[in-house]
Design brief:
five-stranded mixed β-sheet; alpha/beta
C-alpha cells in the first residue's frame, strides 16, 4: 500500500509537515504536489492504480517543471537529457536556455540561489548540490517515485517500476521500500539474481522486514532450481509428448462427466462447457488427450499462419481471456459458438491471473481439435513458463490435475503460432512490432518458436511489444520488448502489403482502442480484469465483401458473474510478497 501523507517514510525521514509549515509562502507548488500525492494514495486504497499513477506523476511534475512549461513528464522519472540539451557536468543557471523555467522552479525549493550542477544517470537528472534542496522536497519526491512504482507493478509496467525505484534509491540509499519494490518488479521479469540483491539490501536496512527476508530466501531457491534444471537438461532427452503413454490412464468409475472421443462432436463441446461451468473437473485422461491432440495440430503449423476469409463470410478476433471462463462463455453466447461457419482467432493470454485458466484452455483446445481450420490460437506472453509460475496457471494445473499435465501444456504452448495474417490484409499478433524496419512476414514464418522466448529479437517482440503515440521506438515500460510509433506501423504494413495490425496484450477501457491513424487496434477480451479494473471486454468481427475486402466492427461487452473464487487464487504466494 502506498504511504499516506502523515506516515513516516521508510527512508527514516520524519513525516512531512503540512505544506505551509514545511515551505511557508515561498513554495506553493510543494502544497500542490502534496495534494496530488494524497489524491494518489486515495486512488490506490480503492485499487484505482491508473489514476493513482497519474496523480503521483502530477506531483512529480509540480516539483520538476515550471508552471508555464508545456513539457509533459507524466510518464518519465524527471527531465531527460535529450529534452534539455545538456551534457554531464554542465553548469546550469536560471537563464540557461530551455532549462531556465525548470531551474527557476527548482531554486524556489532551494535553501540558497546558487547555480545548480546536473549529472546524468540513464534518462534522469540528479542535483549534485543536494544541500540546495530542502529535506521535505527530497522526501516527497522519493515517496512519489516509490508509490508510482507500486502502481506500475500493479499495472504490469515492470520496466517503469524499476526505473522509478532506481531513481528513488539513488536519491536515498537508505530507502528500504524502494529496494523492496524494485525486487518485486525484478521477480515479475524472472530476474531472480537482481531481485535477490534488492531484497538483501531491504532486509539489511530494515531488519524487521520479514517479507523481504522471505522473498530473499525464495529468490535463492529459484536460482538454485534454475541451475539444477540447466545441469540435468540434455539435447538428447525426449519431450514429454513423445514419451507419454495415454493408454496408461484410466477413468474413475464414479466419474459422470463428458469423455473425449474423436472426432470431437458438438455434443461433447456443449457437455464440456456446462460441466466446467458447474465447477466440475474433466477427467484426467480426457484432459491429457485434449492437450496432446492440440499440440500435434500446432506442431504442423508454421510460426505465422495465413487464414482465408471467403467473400461474404465473417471472422472474429478476440484478445486476452486470462482465465476468465465465464466471460469466455459469454463471448460465445453473444457472438455465437465457434463452427465452420463462425470461425474465431483467440490472440494469446488464455491463462494466468483468472482462476479458471484450466477451464478456459481445455475448452479452447477442444474447439481447436474440433475445428482445426476454423478455430485459431496464438501464443501470448503468458503462454510461457516464467509467467505461469508467477501468475497461477502452473499452480492451477497442479492443484486440479498434476504437475506432469502442466509440463505437457508447456510443450503445447511452445508450438502455438506467434502470429496470423487474415485474408492477406490483417496482421494479428499478441504484442506488437519490431526493433528493425526490414521485417517481412516471410521471415516471421521461419522463426523457430519451439521453446521459451529469448531476451531479444522478433520472437519476444511479437509477445511483448506495445504501441506508442510518438514516432519511432522507445524502451518498453514493461521491461521486455519495446514500444513503437505510428511510423513503424505504417512502414511494416507498406513493406508487407497489409492494411492493419491487430494486437492484444493491454487492458483497454472499452475493450478495444484504435491507434496509429486507425491502422492499429488493440483488442482485450477480459472484462473487469482481475475483478477490479472495471473495463469492458471486446472482440472484432471482420466481414469480407464480394471482393474479399475486410471491414472490422468493434463489439464491447460487460463482465458476467462468476463463482466466488478470487483472481490469482493459484498464483505463487512465495513470489508475490503481498502484491495480490
Amino acid at each position: 500500500m502506498a504511504e499516506r501523507p502523515t506516515e513516516q517514510a521508510a527512508s527514516g525521514y520524519p513525516a512531512a509537515a503540512p505544506a505551509a509549515a514545511a515551505t511557508g509562502d515561498k513554495c506553493p507548488i510543494f502544497a500542490k504536489a502534496e495534494a496530488c500525492k494524497a489524491e494518489g494514495n486515495a486512488h490506490v486504497k480503492e485499487q484505482r492504480f491508473q489514476r493513482g499513477q497519474f496523480c503521483y506523476s502530477e506531483a512529480i511534475e509540480h516539483l520538476f517543471t515550471d508552471g508555464d512549461d508545456d513539457d509533459d513528464v507524466s510518464d518519465t522519472t524527471a527531465t531527460s537529457a535529450s529534452t534539455v540539451g545538456l551534457k554531464e557536468g554542465d553548469e546550469v543557471t536560471a537563464t540557461s536556455g530551455s532549462m531556465a523555467g525548470k531551474v527557476g522552479k527548482l531554486k524556489s525549493l532551494a535553501d540558497d540561489q546558487g547555480d545548480l550542477k546536473v549529472d546524468f544517470a540513464g534518462n534522469v537528472i540528479f542535483l549534485q548540490r543536494e544541500s540546495l534542496i530542502k529535506v521535505e522536497v527530497k522526501q516527497l519526491y522519493v515517496i512519489c517515485l516509490s508509490n508510482r512504482a507500486h502502481c506500475h507493478i500493479k499495472l504490469e509496467n515492470f520496466g517503469s517500476a524499476i526505473q522509478d525505484t532506481t531513481m528513488a534509491v539513488a536519491l536515498d540509499e537508505n530507502f528500504s521500500k524502494g529496494f523492496h519494490r524494485r525486487g518485486l518488479a525484478n521477480i515479475q521479469l524472472s530476474k531472480f539474481k537482481e531481485a535477490k540483491a534488492d531484497f538483501k539490501k531491504a532486509a539489511v536496512l530494515n531488519p524487521k522486514d520479514k517479507l523481504s527476508r522471505d522473498l530473499l530466501k525464495q529468490c535463492e531457491k529459484e536460482i538454485v532450481a534454475a541451475r539444477f534444471a540447466k545441469a540435468i537438461a540434455t539435447e538428447e532427452s525426449d519431450p514429454l509428448w513423445q514419451r507419454l503413454d495415454l493408454n496408461s490412464f484410466g477413468v474413475d468409475s464414479s466419474y459422470e462427466g463428458p469423455r473425449l472421443c474423436q472426432p470431437i462432436t458438438t455434443e461433447f463441446l456443449a457437455a464440456l462447457s456446462e460441466w466446467q461451468k458447474d465447477q466440475k473437473i474433466l477427467d484426467k485422461k480426457s484432459a491429457y488427450e485434449l492437450c496432446m491432440a492440440a499440440l500435434l495440430i500446432f506442431k504442423e503449423d508454421r510460426s505465422l499462419v495465413h487464414i482465408d476469409v471467403p467473400p461474404g463470410t465473417e471472422f472474429t478476433v478476440c484478445g486476452d481471456v486470462h482465465g476468465q471462463y465465464y466471460d469466455l462463455l459469454n463471448i460465445f453466447k453473444i457472438n455465437g459458438l465457434p463452427s465452420e461457419t463462425n470461425p474465431y482467432l483467440f490472440n494469446g493470454d488464455f491463462v494466468d491471473r483468472g482462476s479458471f485458466s484450466m477451464e478456459c484452455i481445455l475448452l479452447l483446445f477442444a474447439y481447436k481439435v474440433a475445428y482445426p481450420k476454423h478455430f485459431y490460437l496464438a501464443r501470448g506472453n503468458h503462454e510461457t513458463k516464467a509467467m505461469n509460475k508467477l501468475y497461477g496457471f502452473s499452480g492451477e494445473v497442479t492443484a486440479k490435475y498434476d504437475e506432469r499435465l502442466y509440463d505437457l501444456f508447456s510443450e503445447a504452448f511452445c508450438y502455438l503460432p506467434l502470429g496470423h495474417v487474415i485474408g492477406r490484409q490483417i496482421f494479428v499478433v499478441h504484442g506488437g512490432l519490431f526493433s528493425k524496419d526490414d521485417v517481412s512476414i516471410v521471415d516471421l514464418a521461419k522463426i523457430n518458436r519451439n521453446g521459451e522466448p529469448p531476451d531479444s529479437g522478433e520472437f519476444v517482440e511479437m509477445l511483448w511489444s506495445d504501441p506508442q503515440p510518438m514516432l519511432g521506438r522507445a524502451p518498453s515500460k514493461r521491461g521486455v520488448g519495446l514500444t513503437f510509433g505510428p511510423d513503424v506501423t505504417k512502414n511494416f504494413l507498406e513493406k508487407n502489403n497489409l492494411k492493419m495490425v491487430v494486437r492484444s496484450h493491454e487492458m483497454k477501457e472499452l475493450g478495444y482502442e484504435l491507434e496509429h491513424d486507425g491502422k492499429l487496434c488493440t483488442v482485450f477480451s477480459a472484462p473487469n480484469y482481475c475483478d477490479q479494473m472495471g473495463n469492458k471486454g471486446a472482440y472484432i468481427r471482420f466481414k469480407a465483401d464480394e471482393t474479399g475486402d475486410l471491414t472490422p466492427s468493434y463489439n464491447s461487452f460487460d463482465a458476467v458473474p462468476h463463482p466466488e473464487v478470487r483472481p490469482m487464487q493459484y498464483a505463487n504466494p512465495a513470489l508475490f510478497g503481498g502484491m495480490r
